[in-house]
């Protein structure tokens, strides 16, 4: 049975917590706890997404959630009975235990994904709503002027920035993009030989800015990539000098702008989960934590 179907069946089951005559009332809570554990084990057994290490961590976090809900005396009768209050008390408990905000954020990413997959919507459980703030995140945000393309004069620097912000490419991928190989009729095809994660992926043309960027690349490179056309040091130097001239650091990646701009567009026709999955696939990202940082910077 598929995960979603299994949990829909589970959601419809009622949990009888009324003690039978002569039964000790306190036995109900351990019974709930064991039932929740069994359901998590079933879920983790059938959810094969992520690496082996990621799957083990997912199992650990979900079981920790059960243990800590039991510890604070706030155990739900079933997963689909979890409310905003349960999550808020859980986060407060972790904060009192002095867990790092970054650790709690990672736990919450797994927890939100879990409830998304079992189709149980819990409102207002974002990190911001829960009062979780990573002190280090404020210094690592993407600070890129909206008119950056207009401010850049050098065409090489301009195309490298545009490939990052309009297609989500890394700088390395942008420098190695070959028009005759990677530019197709309706999409960019990032082959594994230039992809940062060594996996093929495609990014469809969805808007006019992408079409203009594609045409600029064709005009600038013709049949070869930027490195073969102008030389690596020339390309890298032009990029660094031009960004420095407009007060933008060249050492940072700006591909996160693509995720931040594309998410609300995709969300018009896709669920939040599918919109994020689409961006993860198109950017070649393995970590949901990385995507979260792009969307919230």
Q: Could you please describe the fold and organization of this structure?
A:
InterPro entries: CB, DNA_brk_join_enz, Integrase_recombinase_N, Putative_integrase_N. It comes from Legionella drancourtii LLAP12. It contains 16 helices and two strands. Residues about 10-30 have low confidence and may be disordered. By secondary structure, it is an all-alpha fold. The chain folds into two domains: about 5-140, no CATH class; about 140-295, Orthogonal Bundle (hpI Integrase, Chain A).
Calculate the mean pLDDT score and round it. 86
* Poorly predicted regions: 12-28
CATH H-level superfamily of the largest domain:
Intergrase catalytic core
Number of strands: 2
Query: What structural category characterises the helix and strand content?
Result: mainly alpha
How much helix is in the residues? 55-70%
Q: Helical stretch count?
A: 16
Strand composition percent: under 5%
Compressed to H and E, one letter per element, the order equals HHHHHHHHHHEEHHHHHH
How many structural domains are formed by the residues? 2
> What is Rg?
24 Å
Biggest β-sheet: count, sense, barrel? 2 strands, antiparallel
The CATH class of the largest domain is Mainly Alpha
Give the strand order of the largest sheet, numbering strands 1, 2, ... along the chain: 1-2
Looking at the structure, the CATH topology of the largest domain is hpI Integrase, Chain A
Question: What is the annotated CATH architecture of the largest domain?
Answer: Orthogonal Bundle
Distance between the termini: 39 Å
